[in-house]
Amino acid sequence: MVEQTDPQSDEGKRLASWIGFQRVPGIGPARLARLISLFGTIDNAWDASVADLRAVGVSAEIARAIHDTREALDIRAEIDRMNRVGVHAITADSNDYPRLLQHVPSAPPVLFARGSILPVDDVAVAIVGTRRATHYGIEMAARLAADLASAGVTVISGLAYGIDTAAHRAAVDAGGRTIAVLGSGPDTIYPPQNRRLAERVIEQGALVSEYPVGTKPDARNFPARNRIISGMSRGVIVVEAPTASGAMLTASFAADQSRDVFAVPGQATANSSAGCHALIRDGATLITDASQVLEQLDLANHKSHVQVRLTLPESAGERILYELIGTDPLHLDEICLASGRPIYEVTGTLLEMELKGLVRQTAPQHYVRA
Q1: Is 47 helix (H, G, I), strand (E, B) or coil?
Q2: Fewer Cβ atoms within 10 Å of its own Cβ: the N or the C terminal residue of the chain?
Q3: Cβ-based neighbours of 314, under 8 Å, separated by 6 or more
Q4: Residues 73-118: tens digit of each pLDDT
Q5: Is the pLDDT of residue 173 over 90?
Q6: What contacts 213, CB < 8 A, 6 or more positions away?
Q7: 285 forms bridges with which residues in the sheet?
Q8: Which run of H or E residues covers position 61?
Q9: Residue 358 has what pLDDT?
């Protein structure tokens, strides 16, 4: 569970600077990075006077916009609103900021999220497509999402009708992780019929947006959010899409960001698959199942690698006992004697190792490697 932010804490004040700059018209990632470089910290840049901003080359228009936003922004009220609806902000300098997205030049300085973004979400694939999906498209999206989720890959999409909905639902049904990137604030679910699905996404991933709490869905927001969908992913799968569609824009962003683009073929004369066929002609990888995606992204053994990392000894105590215990059963007393550690410490460590699947008991107080 994400802790609430105190507006008066150092973290709250730092957050105010990030949120404030995100609200200033004309301040993009590149300009913000330059301001931080010039003033040393984002707080110093946010607190700078108009004269100080002008002295380092900021235009009068931008300097005045920063000043006016600073005067108008009620950060206490803003953070209180976020806390009330369970939204937390992830800033570009945070360890929680999606690692792949950090390298996208147009990445938003602040993301607003409900749920959690974890290190495992660095291994993600986006599934996108038309809102007016056919039965075939929904079946393919669901099959791909379920298989990717079962392989330990996070599924990313946009929570829209059609292909997006099928992908998110199949991922959570498979017990996997999924992230929905919204064209509204993270507290505003669109379409509203997906509210229950959004709750499941929060439980097994996150709702993410560059738009603050209270932002209503707007047609202008959705094309911009597509760069985040592709930016957080290692590859983008287009299941069904007309030639002029948001899914095709996501594929274009993916290509610009050096992501792999995959396309599912459809009926030759179907308008709903015309975009996919155009992508394939232009060099996208034709796929019919998830194994082809996993192979191209070198993720075929991803889940087993994750399981190995999870079951490796973590602490010094675990490593010592793991080296001592082999395929021949060892009694607890023998393990204590060989390790030189007290029995209370050894029993506690062995219990943790059992829970992780590192060792097992063949008889009471007799242990072997699992």
Answers
A1: helix
A2: N
A3: none
A4: 888 888 889 999 999 999 988 888 999 998 898 899 999 999 999 9
A5: yes
A6: 78, 81, 82, 85, 87, 112, 185, 186, 187
A7: 262
A8: helix 60-72
A9: 82
- Tokens at 89, concatenated: 């902000």
Question: In whole numbers, what is the pLDDT of the chain averaged over residues?
Answer: 91
* Per-residue confidence (pLDDT) for residue 242, from 0 to 100: 95
Report pLDDT for 265.
97
CA quadruple 294, 299, 302, 305: dihedral positive or negative?
A: positive
Query: Using CB atoms within 10 A of its CB, is residue 121 exposed (0-12), middle (13-18) or buried (19+)?
Result: buried
Closest CA to 205 of 290, 318, 123, 116: 116
Q: Rg for the chain (alpha carbons), in Å?
A: 25
Task: Give the residue among 72, 74, 68 at the shortest CA–CA distance from 16.
Answer: 74
Q: In which residue are the tokens 């602040």 written?
A: 110
Distance CA 173, CA 197 (A): 11
Distance CA 113, CA 123 (A): 18
Residue owning tokens 């008991």: 361
Handedness of CA 65, 67, 70, 71 (dihedral sign): negative
**Higher-scoring residue by pLDDT: 243, 302:** 243
Is the bond leading into 191 cis (omega within 30 degrees of zero)?
yes
Closest of 345, 170, 139, 130 to residue 251, by C-alpha: 130
pLDDT of residue 6: 56
Q: Would you list the DSSP string of 302-362?
A: HHHHHHHHHHS--SHHHHHHHHH--SS-EEHHHHHHHHT--HHHHHHHHHHHHHHTSEEEE
Distances (CA, A) of 293 to 34, 68, 94, 236, 284: 38, 48, 30, 10, 12
pTM exceeding 0.85: no
